[in-house]
Sequence to fold (221 residues):
Amino acid sequence: MRREPFHRFKGTKAYVVSVTSLTLLALVATASADEGFVTVSREGDGLTLESRDVSDSSFDEYRVHGSAVELPAVVADAIWYGEPPPEEAKDIIRRKVAERTAREAIVWSVMKFSLASPRVAAIFYTRSTGSDGTITITGRRIPALPYVRAAGATEIVRLESTWQIRPNASGGTDFSFTIFSDPGGSVPAFLVGSYQRSNALLTVRHALHDAKKLAAGAASQ
Fold:
């Protein structure tokens, strides 16, 4: 909606309306800055991408949230057992699920990285369910050396991710996916940020796509 500057309004009534509108906008901005996150984009498919500064890094943390008609357990299974998105898979040199149970997993990979040497990472994942039905899936970087050796590759310095998958009042799922990573090496922050923003959305969309396939497969049985 187009906002007129103050000097274009004449009369007390117009002034009160403009102040009220600005107050509402401020409240919305405060809400979107929950936990320091600010809105980056609202996507056409209902996803919202947010970012926030990380005090000890030159890279930002990103969060995507939205909803799905599938049950939380279906969405969580799609994430837990799914493969990487095809768009990401084309950059994977090597990848292996080293260990996976119902609650823990270790996955390592060696990936191409734009304008830089390949990156290697081992990620330890955990899955838990709270008393309110919220499913939490976390991932964090662990030393890769016990799992993979990759000559000429740079080990990712830091990676932390969290899925919060909650039942909603409509019988479906509300979710958020938060991720922060530091690829290591001398990579410009703007390049890393561009990749991280697109990858966060890509990860969520692929998980939702897999959840739909899982739900459809279960319904057909």
Notes: The longest strand covers residues 116-129. Residues 64 and 200 are 7 Å apart (CA to CA). The helical segments are 12-32, 72-81, 86-89, 189-220. Strands lie at 38-42, 48-52, 61-68, 92-100, 104-113, 116-129, 135-142, 154-155, 158-167, 173-182.
